[in-house]
Amino acid sequence: MTTIAPPAHGPGRVRSADELRALAEEAAVRFADATADEVLAWAAETFGSHLVVACSMAADTVVPHLTARHLPGVDVLFLQTGYHFPETIGTRDALAHAVDVRIVEALPALTVAEQDAEYGPRLHERDPQSCCAMRKVEPINRELASYEAWVTGVRREDNALRAGTGIVEWDAAHQMVKINPVAAWSTDEVMAYAATHGVPVNLLLDEGYPSIGCAPCTRPVAPGEDPRSGRWAGFAKTECGLHTDQQDEGTPVTAIQTA
Ligand code: SF4
Fold first, then answer.
1. What are phi and psi of 52, to 5 degrees?
2. Which of 57, 85, 103, 160 is deepest in the core (most CB within 10 A)?
3. What is the pLDDT of residues 192-216, one digit of tens each?
4. Residue whose CA is closest, atom 4 of ligand 1?
5. Cα dihedral 103, 191, 213, 3 in deg (nearest 10)
6. Could you tell me where the beta strands, DSSP code E, fall in 153-208?
7. 170: closest CA among 72, 26, 3?
């Protein structure tokens, strides 16, 4: 089957990779202990429309809200894998209604039906790494290539792989600046911000899903369990490859990370 991937939404890049890397390295020092507002004010002024926010529509909806305070109408990238919970789609729609952002959907080259026809049904049950590569990693890589910097909801308390997350980082995998404004926030701080500012969050958070991805690959976790242990249960895989260059099941190769 010949497939043509959908075009990316971003404005393209103006700065070179060397210029972006220099910006990231200087900002990583300058904003090492910065608040979310401080770093996002800099990001909005520095990158403008070349900035995009990635959001999985869980509790990380606070990040588009934080960013839109400094950059109204900012692009918010949502990976439309075709396998989301209805609650996740509902959160996407509620966010678009409540916050001044432009939701842009990163679409895989193949629909679920086309993927089933080419690779067999329920690829996620047999080879989740390949399924994630086609439905998450390739689409977000394509989209990110049309921006200079991205903002994520990655937090240090997510899991051990994310414990060293900086507020600003050089994302070598995508050759762009990566900003993690809530890296140091606790879950309680995130939820308090959402409640205070009326930011919609995913209803599944209250039903035992602290980390929410595609429906077939996400289960609720018991109190005290690793928040990400409900992802790809039964596989060594713990990351989809967006924030860690995890090419082999359970083997982190470098450091990148949203959903
Ligand atoms: Fe496929 Fe599961 Fe990855 Fe979603 S999380 S892209 S369904 S393997």
1. -135, 150
2. 57
3. 999 999 999 999 999 999 889 999 9
4. 214
5. 10
6. 168-171, 176-179
7. 26
Distance 40 CA to ligand 1 centre (A): 30
- Amino acid sitting at position 255: A
Summarised one tens digit per residue, pLDDT across range 152-181 is: 999 999 888 889 999 999 999 999 999 999
Quick one: pLDDT at residue 160?
82
ipTM of the complex: 0.99
Pocket test for ligand 1, best of 110, 134, 135 (most atoms within 8 A of CB): 135
- The answer to whether the CB of 76 falls within 8 A of the CB of 52 is yes
CATH of 17-252, one of 3.50.50.60, 2.40.50.140, 3.80.10.10, 3.40.50.620: 3.40.50.620
Q: Are 228 and 218 in contact (CB under 8 A)?
A: no
